[in-house]
Design a protein that fits this description.
It contains four helices and no strands. With about 120 residues, the protein is an all-alpha fold.
């Protein structure tokens, strides 16, 4: 892959991690050491973000016939929320779906704002 493809993803990935790790680190309360909470938080979007960015759009187009940005984003975000909620549930986080909705909702909203109004 070229740097023209990787650079925007890397920026979006770093932004997502910055936002979502802070939220996911609180999902465990104080039941786990901070380093463990941060590792789990990093893994949540670390697993889903590359799939959302590189795989889901192609699958939406090929399998579902979707070409619109908003419909693809809806599928991608739904996938991320469900996958991350399942991941959190594996670590006995209470209300994992709420945490995944919160983390993805905040990062998506801030990312869209940045894209539309701040040029990144």
């Amino acid at each position: 892959m070229s740097s023209a493809v990787i650079a925007p993803w890397a920026l979006a990935f770093a932004f997502t991690q910055l936002v979502e790790m802070g939220i996911y680190a609180h999902a465990h309360g104080r039941r786990r050491p901070l380093a463990e909470r941060l590792a789990i938080a990093f893994a949540c979007s670390g697993i889903t973000h590359p799939l959302v960015w590189f795989v889901v759009p192609g699958l939406c187009e090929r399998w579902l016939g979707m070409r619109g940005w908003w419909s693809t984003v809806a599928v991608a975000e739904a996938f991320a929320v469900l996958a991350e909620a399942l991941f959190l549930a594996a670590f006995a986080v209470r209300t994992p779906l709420r945490w995944a909705l919160l983390a993805n909702g905040v990062s998506f909203t801030l990312g869209l704002f940045g894209y539309l109004y701040l040029g990144f």
